[in-house]
Specification:
The structure is a homodimer. By secondary structure, chain A is mainly α. In chain A, 67% of the residues lie in helices and 0% in strands. Chain A has helices at residues 9-14, 24-39, 46-53, 67-91, 96-113, 115-121, 131-153, 163-181, 184-187, 194-207. The termini of chain A are far apart. The first copy, chain A, binds a DNA duplex through loops.
Chain lengths: 208, 208
DNA sequence: ACCTGAACACCGTTCAAGT
DNA sequence: ACCTGAACACCGTTCAAGT
């Protein structure tokens, strides 16, 4: 029997399931993001992600070295979202002092409205050395750094390495976010709105 | 056959393995503390704890409802240790301002020298509603609260609910501790000694 | 090149049964 | 009352084999 002439290869590929085109990686990340939001970081399993993407349990290992690397992809998307939120605020024309306070409030708001992402981003189960994660994290931090530099130029903050100011600032915001998500502030009788708490604390830390 | 007269019951109990006296709970907690320090929070398993205590995998369930409750016991011991560290500082006669700064430095020092405990204490895997955990946590927090109240009485800090000052203070310290343990500050180019960072930031937040 | 099937070495948790 | 043995329903990860 003579072989049928081959249908053009790209077309053949296209008739397969979407995931076989080489974007299974994207599909897995997408499924992972949804799963983290649905079940939280504790209910997150590689097998369930594979199930949702409609592939075998071994398939993800073609695209991610291990679970920690898939979680890093989730965290990266988290930092991208956080960065977008912050850069939208940095783009608004506003009093420089107010801008820093707004950034702080936006940071905390994003964290408490995305507690699952936030826990993954700062948890100990993800691959902290993932290059994409590092750059996404740095970019979000740079938004804070930029606002501080602008305040320094306007003499609203003392001169010197802006990191010396950004370090405590980020620590304060992360502390408020993380103790709020963990309900730790609640447990010791602090029931303030975390955004208000952030604004007051930032004022004291930076502009007292 | 006549039954032998019973040997005194306490004596009979004492001849068994030590764990069968009713202190298996303590033995399990002890093993758990050691395991967390050896393998970190990720390598911590209930089965390994049981193995180290020399009992079956089901035995721990007589004393702890689940893994989250055993982790709460570990966290409780962590807060007890942290409390001891802080109360030793609060007991020293010193300038009240210096005492608050010293408390902050001690908090951060304890955290970064016990990263595994610290991650369990503020992680999402433990039972946060455990009563012992709640009181141990509150006691540690009260040490900070007390120092703030003393500063208020000496007019070194503004009057009002001390929690309004303690909240941001704890958040700042927790943020520094947690971002240091996670190497996040490092990744954005902040390589300061966390204790020095804590002191500087506390000065700015409280005594600027 | 990319995915599947099947296996390996683990988990947390439950429960009848032993003492 | 307290613990064991054995099971159940999962995990993450690996690897030969398929296409």
């Amino acid at each position: 029997m003579a072989r049928q002439p081959k249908i053009p290869e790209t077309s053949a590929d296209e008739r397969r399931d979407a995931y076989h085109h080489g974007d299974l990686k994207r599909a897995l990340t997408h499924a992972a993001l949804a799963l983290v939001q649905e079940k939280g970081p504790k209910g997150f399993t590689l097998r369930e992600v594979a199930r949702r993407a409609g592939v075998s349990v071994a398939a993800p290992y073609r695209h991610f070295a291990d679970k920690a690397q898939l979680l890093a992809a989730v965290a990266t998307q988290g930092f991208v979202q956080l960065h977008e939120t912050l850069s939208a605020i940095a783009a608004e024309p506003a009093d420089l002092t107010k801008q820093v306070l707004d950034l702080g409030r936006a940071y905390v708001r994003w964290a408490v409205t995305h507690p699952d992402y936030y826990q993954v981003m700062f948890g100990s189960e993800l691959d902290k050395n993932d290059p994409d994660l590092l750059t996404a994290g740095s970019r979000a931090f740079d938004e804070l750094l930029g606002a501080i530099v602008r305040c320094q130029r306007a003499r609203l903050l003392s001169d010197g390495d802006p990191r010396e100011i950004a370090g405590p600032t980020w620590s304060l915001l992360h502390g408020i976010a993380s103790l709020t998500i963990g309900r730790d502030l609640n447990h010791v009788g602090i029931r303030d709105d975390p955004q208000a708490l952030a604004e007051r604390a930032l004022r004291a830390l930076l502009f007292a």
